Amino acid sequence: MPALPRRAGSLQDREEIASHLARALTVKGVLDTDGELFVLGHVLGRINADRLVVVPGGYVEGDVVARDVLIGGRLNGRVFALNVTLDASADVTGRIFHHTVTVAKGAKVDARMPWRPPSYFETLDQLPETRT
């Protein structure tokens, strides 16, 4: 039987560009994806993704650059994203540069959350230096 033709934007396409980092996995370095990344384990470094989901129990330490970010686990670092959602189980320390942010009741947030216009993210080619 021939394979069904794939349609752009279909669920099948989304599944193919979604990546999952398992709970037992720790990654150090830079992660780049044009798709969606689910972090169940630990990431120590920078993440560049279209969409990032840090599930409860997941941990990210470092910078995140994405269009959409959903945090249900822990994050220690900076987030640069158009849309950020902090779930009730989120535990965030750092800075969240955003255009829209949603914070659920119960989320732990020890962060500055400066608003930025969409054009800020469109032209973001280098991250600001971290002050020591």
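Above is the first protein from milestone M3; the second protein from the same milestone is given next.
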Amino acid sequence: MNEKALIAACLQEDRKAQQALYDHFAPTMLGVCKRYVKAPQDAEDVLIEAFFKVFTNLHQFKGDGSFEGWIRRIVINESLMFLRRNHHLLNHVEVETAAGLRITPSVHEELAAGEILRLLDQLPMGYRTVFNLYVLEGYKHREIAELMGISINTSKSQLILAKKRLREMLGVGEGERERGREGERGRLGEEV
């Protein structure tokens, strides 16, 4: 059954189609939940709540884009709602506190996806959430601020601090960053 037929069957409350849809998307979406919600049982609860919303609001999907993207947005929003309800998003630092913590763009680009996900579990909730939304999901700071109920500056500072903490966890020190800059200068033939 193709995606369009599966959605149509789900709209008719066909339980087998709903199960097929869940079985198809749940593993990927559980991975999304786990990037935001650390405890596996909480991530599973968030997933169930998100799929409840998917099925009750399926009539709102108009087909103007990726169905998986539509589900992903619901899962992310549900994850953020869980974090808000449990007050995990209250710990944040304004950008003034993070002043001077410049991170080279290559830090997160050089990490393998598996390393990032493993290290993200060790970050404080606010850092991890902003990093996920900005780096992995592609949200802008304005959107993150709206989703999380924080200021744009807080979103920026959380990202800076998350990258700094990741760099520390990887053991990337000032000397290594300087060597990286030297290599960039050599490749570009100019000062960076």
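Note on the second protein: The chain has two domains: 3-85, 106-188.
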